[in-house]
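Aim 2, interim progress: modelling of the glyoxylic acid-bound target.
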Amino acid sequence: MAILLNNNGYGNEAWRKELSTQAPEYIVREFGEQIDPDEIDYALVWNHPKEDLLNYPNLKAVFSLGAGAEHFTGETELPDVPIVLLSDPAVAKDMAAYALYWILMFHRKFRVYEEQQTDAIWYRHSIVPTSDFKVGILGLGKIGTEIATRISDFGYSVSGWDRKRCELPGIENFEGEQSIGSFLGANDVIINCLPLTNDTCGFMNSDRFNQMRKGARFLNLSRGAIIVEEDLLGSIDNGHIAGATLDAFTCEPLAPDHRFWHHPNINVTPHMSGATFASSALRLIVENIHRIEKGEPAFPLFDRTLGY
Ligand code: GLV
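Predicted structure of the complex, ligand included:
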């Protein structure tokens, strides 16, 4: 019994160590080493060459080692086994903390106070009450829902947009294409949590940035390709939106000469808003392996039609 592991070199030692304690009955085979295809029961992968997954005749399921699912989309055929996504509450919670940090930074003007401190300036700026500061979550999947709920718990006025109706207590709901303009125009900060699919690639283009409230800010926590980078720069440079915080980019790592790095109104972080930790992720994966071994369904499953 063996597990194929390919996390693209990220923390392989930690994954191996956790596997040896949480699933000691399985031998771990790292992608790239000599492997007998017949012995592989489960594949735990991230950005793995999809065609390789067809090589294992006894494969029972494929597990994603990250929250995104775009590495399972495209024309290439996938094996006829469940593709199980990773929906780790610990990751969603970390992402909510990341979002809260930036919301506080914008709303409470911490950058301004940092600059004032340099010159020993004691001056208190006026701000809108927390309940009047409006935060919009674009995409109410597991991560978007967690962020919306936690930010709302701090007293911010939170709304969410999704292509389908999502009822969340205390969160104003905007649903479908016809409401995207009013959603974008209603908020001081828009936080992108959409999955990357054929429908969302290039979703935030200049038309949509122009629909945002003047002086608002944009946070991208999901995938770079959902925004048209030039259109974002255009909207900031023409003074329509105030700035952006970006944790995901069309090409990662972000090229050293990319304009985002040195733009005064853009904050760049290196895709760290919600790192996957082997310890908590494996608990969920091993629970699913036990379910499959008992003939029960694993979850959450990748939807091959929706692409996430
Ligand atoms: C990271 O972006 C992930 O999808 O887990």
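The two ends are 29 Å apart (CA to CA). The mean pLDDT is 96.
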